[in-house]
Amino acid sequence: MYSLGINKDIIDSIYKEGHPIAQYGLYMKRAKPYKVFKIPVDCGSICPNKDGTLDTEGCIFCPKMGRPIGVKYCNSKYSLKYQIEKQMENQKKKGVDKFYIYFYPGTNTYGDPERLKELWDFALSYSDVVGLSIGTRPDCLSREILDILENYVKKGYEIWIDLGIQSFHQKTLDLINRKHGVSHIIGAILECKRRGILVCGHVILGLPDETWEEMIDTAESLSKLGIDALKIYPLVVVKGTKLEEMYWKGEYRALDRKQYIKILCDFLEHTSPYVLIQRVSKDKVPEEIKVSPEWNLSRLSILNDAIKEFKRRGTRQGVYYRG
Ligand code: SF4
To answer: Is 3 inside any structural domain?
Structure first.
């Protein structure tokens, strides 16, 4: 029904036009015969790292109240139907034809598989929905869940797992209290790929005590595993987190903007040229909850500065990647 997998020829054409990064947005415009938009929805998912199953504290950067999303109608106080239809209506007015439904805050493959399947079936029941993006942790992809997702792939839907990875180093995963191992990351990526499920990994640059070499190793290791896409973020200190305590005690200092742009470009130079880059920074974090860094995190301004830095260096994504 829909073309699946990442088309390398399209990515090559992006570089030939002079773009230094395999940007997801540029790729989608060339790969799809329609205009597509990802609708974020919040179904009130919880997390085993917060509900007491693994821990109650969560990752050191994750706010107790959950991650705020500044998108109108993406709120668990509304039904899934309402969240989808209101956003679809707004986007259709802007000329969007097709949609992915993005199950975002919390761990969206955690819980009763029957209930989760009902939510996903419902989202896919709209004729203009061509796929799903599902945000989760690497240790929450059971065989039962993967079977359900693989069935959607077999029906022709494009299914993405938005996988919280953050780092490929066990000492960092322990320090940030992820409560899962590197082996879970490897297993999740390989199992998804085997089943035709696309994987977008989320990585944070500037985690406590991470060296340049370790961040670069994360880029190379994920590329070698065949990850399809990445969202890359600077670490942000938010109020009410363990990271905030570390910050006020002087145990953690965020990267400054110049350092972030530099490590971001270094990271991308060591990432496979065929990994799509969905993001290089955050959406705006509300000032009332942001403690650090001071600088403008907006993803468009970071993207523009990263492109300028690549032009200055005369390089692009993947130049130092040896797959
Ligand atoms: S896995 Fe995600 S939702 Fe759970 S504590 Fe960590 S950042 Fe928060």
So the answer is: no
